[in-house]
From TrEMBL:
This is Carbohydrate ABC transporter membrane protein 2 (CUT1 family). Residues 69-259 form the ABC transmembrane type-1 domain. GO terms for biological process: transmembrane transport. PANTHER family: ABC TRANSPORTER PERMEASE PROTEIN MG189-RELATED, ABC TRANSPORTER PERMEASE PROTEIN MG189-RELATED-RELATED. Belongs to the binding-protein-dependent transport system permease family. It is found in: Cell membrane. InterPro entries: MetI-like, MetI-like_sf. Gene3D superfamilies: MetI-like. PROSITE patterns: ABC_TM1 (PS50928). The chain crosses the membrane at residues 69-94, 106-125, 137-155, 180-202, 238-259. The keyword Cytoplasm does not apply. One of its GO terms (cellular component) is plasma membrane. Pfam families: BPD_transp_1 (PF00528).
Length: 273
């Protein structure tokens, strides 16, 4: 009976893995087909023979996909630095510092997680238009630069689990709050910070709605908007669209493969099961 349960569990896991990986494999397979192969053969059939002409055309003069990748990388890098820095400061304050209204302020701030992004789009658009920042780099990064409720909540819960004796020992050695934060708290929190970094990169690498609303033209067009433009403007050329989707997915997969150990470690540290 136990063997049957184990076999059933593995079958479910394999089925889930296939359903998860299949869209990525289909995207890559389609990207490696020529338009003629895609039009004449089965959608699920493998490329015969594989070709890189879609990727060459994607980065050629006609589509110039280098610019959206560069813009997206810059936006994600600036947001990542801002999110980590401000989230660490705020989370430590909510977890370890005592001030009037601390818990009430934290829960009010956390409640903003319940507000859908679509609700804030129009006020943000109006604000950035009045400030003259529409269709600029800073319009892409400022709304997400100063931390997020999820990031602060995640770090706060981890900081609260750090033994108080460790922080007290640092205070006895004469360390102030900034020194304790950067020389004690941050080093023992590398796993959860790495996890937050991955979540931040993935979230803002895939961000679509706000860049679509606040930018026009190609100067500050991010990867997701550029890919969507290919799909709507060249609706029948699915091989190019899938090549763009593959290019967009590949950096995230590499990032996860590099840092997956930190993700697993952070799950253990934070006590999630």
């Amino acid at each position: 009976m136990s063997r049957l349960r184990t076999a059933g569990a593995y079958l479910l896991l394999v089925a889930g893995a296939v359903l998860t990986v299949a869209p990525f494999l289909l995207s890559l397979s389609t990207a490696l087909k020529s338009p003629q192969q895609f039009a004449s053969g089965s959608v699920l059939g493998p490329p015969a023979p594989p070709t890189l002409e879609n990727f060459g055309e994607l980065f050629g003069e006609r589509y110039d996909f280098v610019s959206p990748i560069a813009v997206t990388a810059q936006v994600v890098a600036v947001i990542l630095v801002g999110q980590l820095a401000f989230s660490v400061f705020a989370a430590y304050a909510f977890a370890r510092l005592r001030f009037p209204g601390r818990d009430a302020l934290f829960w009010v701030y956390l409640a903003t997680l319940m507000v859908p992004q679509a609700v804030t789009i129009i006020p943000l658009y109006t604000l950035f238009t009045d400030l003259g920042l529409r269709n600029t780099f800073w319009a892409l990064v400022l709304p997400q630069l100063f931390g997020s409720p999820y990031a602060i909540f995640l770090l706060r819960e981890h900081f609260r689990g750090i033994p108080g004796d460790l922080l007290d020992a640092a205070k006895l050695d004469g360390a102030g709050t900034p020194r304790i934060l950067w020389h004690v708290v941050v080093p023992v929190s590398r796993g959860i910070i790495a996890t937050l970094a991955i979540i931040t990169v993935v979230t803002h690498w895939n961000n679509f709605l706000w860049p679509l609303v606040i930018t026009t033209g190609r100067q500050w067009q991010v990867l997701t908007v550029a890919t969507a433009g290919l799909q709507s403007q060249y609706n029948s050329n699915w091989t190019i669209v899938m090549a763009a989707a593959t290019v967009a997915i590949l950096p995230l997969m590499v990032l996860f493969l590099i840092f997956q150990r930190h993700v697993v470690r952070s799950i253990t540290i934070t006590g999630f099961r």
